[in-house]
TrEMBL record:
The keyword Flavoprotein applies. Pfam families: FAD_binding_3. Residues 7-173, 313-354 form the FAD-binding domain. The lineage of its organism: Eukaryota, Fungi, Dikarya, Ascomycota, Pezizomycotina. This is FAD-binding domain-containing protein. Keywords: FAD, Flavoprotein, Monooxygenase, Oxidoreductase. It comes from Penicillium cinerascens. PANTHER family: FAD DEPENDENT OXIDOREDUCTASE DOMAIN-CONTAINING PROTEIN, MONOOXYGENASE ASQM-RELATED. Signal peptide: none annotated. The keyword Flavoprotein applies.
């Protein structure tokens, strides 16, 4: 290997930051290009969605980044407890998370944890990727990234961690995200325990889901005694925000349409309606002048793949976008990052030791990584789709309750079997 490989990571979310940090820990230089401007500490202190990291994926990556102890100090604002209610707020299932081993961390805290251990010069903020193009050269295949006003740059390897509408994916495949049939509204209100103790009691200290009529009102607790309320509306109308007159309206203004229309939440009971009403009002009070945060959800087809190229690959949502019904998004992204980093590190040292080209050493390893990823994520996509069908049926609450009962019954059966064997 005559010179160090030029490696670009497009996207500075958890997946991109993880692979960048894993390479940095092994002395391999990469550059992360992030569309957004560098977030301030004040911005990262604001409430954000909670992420539960799984042992075999997200937590495994955190451990290999040598950040597990620091990670644990940032968990705890949202417990692993679960509550499921019907349309009227009657609790059908609740647990304390005793069968879970998936600690929760806010997205902002995870972003700060990962980025703070990378040299500042490794992350280029404010870089919008306009296109990625494969170019043949006498020394192999390169990828040219066009950053518009920030110029063009060429790399030996480009890792697309640039999310649902990935520009890097466009170089590898013509597959596009498809509308999942669900709209997502996000609201946040702080100090729920002191201002609204009865609502804090309803949603509990962890995750909460009220499901009915193919819709859902869900909650996650978070930093600053926050309750983050997500409203999921099943509809074939991809452009519902515009067609229903919700686009551009403040959350406090939009709540009347949401709560009084039987096609939305009009058939939910007073407890759930109050939760939504308060959340909408608090969201507007906290962000005056801001429009309702309503967005359609998108997915990539189950089993998505692409023809392998030696100079570019994809991880996370860019590779296998799916809905959040199994909590796999960030975990799959970090799992991808972990396995891809292993391949890059192995190729780097093999090329260095044998005087070979990095790309020739990486090519079979990266194809092996992609083939494994296609199989692994296809199974997770099937699980996610199945969970969505269960939760967003006409009586999603009962189905979700039965799901948890089956898990606990299975666990009790295992404990009984173990006790019999021990005796």
């Amino acid at each position: 290997m005559s010179s160090p490989p030029r490696i670009a990571i497009v996207g500075g979310g958890p997946g991109g930051l993880t692979v960048g940090l894993l390479l940095h820990r092994r002395g391999i230089l990469s550059t992360i290009f992030e569309l957004r401007q560098k977030p301030t500490d004040e911005e990262l202190a604001k409430p954000s969605g909670m992420l539960d990291l799984h042992k075999e994926s997200g937590l495994a990556a955190i451990r290999e980044c040598e950040l597990y102890d620091q990670f644990l100090q940032l968990t705890g604002e949202c417990s692993e407890a679960q509550k499921v209610s019907d349309k009227d707020g009657n609790i059908l299932h609740q647990d304390e998370g005793e069968l879970s081993d998936r600690p929760e961390i806010s997205r902002h805290a995870l972003t700060k944890l990962l980025s703070s251990h990378l040299p500042a010069e490794n992350i280029k903020y404010g870089y919008k990727l306009y296109s990625a193009t494969s170019i043949s050269t006498p020394n192999g295949t390169e990828t040219e990234l066009d950053f518009g006003p920030n110029g063009k740059q060429r790399f030996d390897l480009v890792i697309g961690a640039d999310g649902a509408w990935s520009q890097v994916r466009n170089m590898l495949s013509d597959i596009k995200p498809q509308y999942a049939g669900i709209q997502n509204i996000t609201t946040t209100f702080r100090h729920v325990s002191t201002k609204y103790p009865h609502l804090a009691e309803l949603v509990g200290p962890g995750s909460f889901a009220a499901l009915a009529f193919r819709h859902g009102v869900m909650s996650q607790r978070g930093p600053q005694d926050v309750a983050r309320i997500f409203i999921f509306l099943t509809t074939p109308d991809e452009h519902l925000p515009v067609s229903a007159g919700l686009a551009g309206r403040a959350a406090s203004d939009a709540k009347e349409l949401l709560l009084n229309n039987d096609e939305f939440l009009g058939r939910f009971g007073p407890k759930i309606r109050e939760l939504v009403s308060v959340a909408c009002d608090e969201e507007t009070n906290d962000n005056p002048g801001a429009a309702l945060d309503i967005r359609p959800l998108y997915t990539l087809p189950i089993g998505v793949s692409w023809e392998h190229k030696p100079n570019a690959t994809l991880i996370g949502d860019a590779a296998h976008l799916m809905c959040p019904w199994a909590g796999e998004g960030v975990n799959l992204a970090m799992w991808d990052s972990l396995l891809l980093a292993h391949a890059i590190i192995k190729a780097y040292h093999a090329a260095k030791d044998q005087g070979a080209s990095f790309q020739s050493e990486l090519d079979p390893l990266m194809k092996e990584f992609e083939d494994e990823m296609f199989v692994r994520t296809k199974e997770k996509a099937k699980e996610t789709y199945s969970n969505g069908q269960m939760m967003f049926g006409e009586d999603g609450a009962t189905a979700f309750r039965d799901f948890f009962r089956a898990i606990y019954s299975q666990n009790e059966g295992k404990e009984t079997l173990e006790a019999i064997r021990a005796a």
